[in-house]
Amino acid sequence: MTRSNRRTFVRHTVVLAGAAALAHAGLATAQSYPTRPVTIVVPHAPGGAVDSVARIFAEKLKDELKQSVIVENRAGASGMIGAQHVARSEADGYTLYVNASIHSINPLLYKKSIKFDAVKDFTAVSMLTQGALIFSVPPSVGATSVSDLVAKFKASPNRYSFATSGFGSAGHLGAAQFLYENDLGQIPIVLYKGAAPALQDLVGGQVQAMMDPMLSSLPFVKAGKLKALAVTGAQRSPLLPDVPTLRESGMKDFELYSWYGLWAPANVPPAIVKQLDEASSRIMAQPDMKSKLETFGFESAYKNSANFAKFIDAETARYKVVIEKANITVD
C-alpha cells in the first residue's frame, strides 16, 4: 500500500468510525428516551378543537412514555407562532407539536411572511383523528335546508355573511368552497379570532352561516340556538343522524374534514419517531380513546409516519385548488 493510499484508508476509517459513534450515540439516546418531561406545543388558544385533541392525547401519551407530558399553548398568527417555535426547537423528541389541517394551509396563504417550511422543518409523526364540520345557521335565517339557504343568499346577498373562526382554517376553506361552487362569491366571509366569538355572533344573528367543528358547535345545535343544515363529511354523523351531508344536499363532490396530527422538529432520530408513532397507534386504538373522541365529533383516522406524510402532500394539493378557485389571498 502506498503512502497516499494509506492516508486515504486512514481518513475513511476515521470517517466511518465517527459515523458509527454518532449512530451509536443516537441509538443510545433513543433507547433511553424519554428521561425528562415531554412538551406538546399547541399553536392555538386553550379550549378549542386542537387544544382538546392535544390534551386527550397527552393524557394517554404520558402512560405510554412513562413520563410527564405537558401541553403548552403558543397561540397567534393563525398557529404560525407555535409552529415556528417547534421548527426551531431541538430535534430530540422533547418538543412535539399537535395541530390541525391549518398547518398545511398556512404555507399556501402566507407565502411571503411565513418563517418556516411546513414540510422540511418538521417530522410528520402520526395522524391522530379527524372530524367533519357542522354547517349551521341561526334559526332567524329561516333556512331549513342547504338549497333553501342558497336561494336566500342569491335573492338578497347583501343581507348575509359567513363566519369563520380562523383565517385559513378548514371552516374558512369550506365556506369559500361552498360559496364559489354556488356562485355566491359576493357573500363576505367574516374573520373571527376563535370559535367562541364567531359562534356568539352567529347565535345572535350578526352573521348568518358557519362551518365549524362539532366540538364547539354541537352544544348550540342541541340547545336549539343553531340549526344544523348539513355536515361536511362523507357520511352522516352518529351525533346528528337526521342531518344530511353536503353531498346529500346536492354538492356531490363536497367532502371536508378538519384533521389533527402529531409532528416533531425535523431530524428527530428515527428510533424516537418510531417510538412515538407506535405509541400513537396504540393510543388511537384504545376503545375509551375512540369513545371520548366520538363524543366530540371526531373519528379514528390514525396514519403512521410515512402515510401521514403522503396524506399531507395530497391534502395540500387539494387545498391549493380551493384557494386558487376562491381567490383567497394574504400576501
Automatic annotation (TrEMBL):
It comes from the Bacteria. Residues 1-30 form the signal peptide. Keywords: Receptor, Signal. InterPro entries: BUG, Bug_dom1, TAT_signal. Belongs to the UPF0065 (bug) family. This is Tripartite-type tricarboxylate transporter receptor subunit TctC. It comes from Pigmentiphaga litoralis.
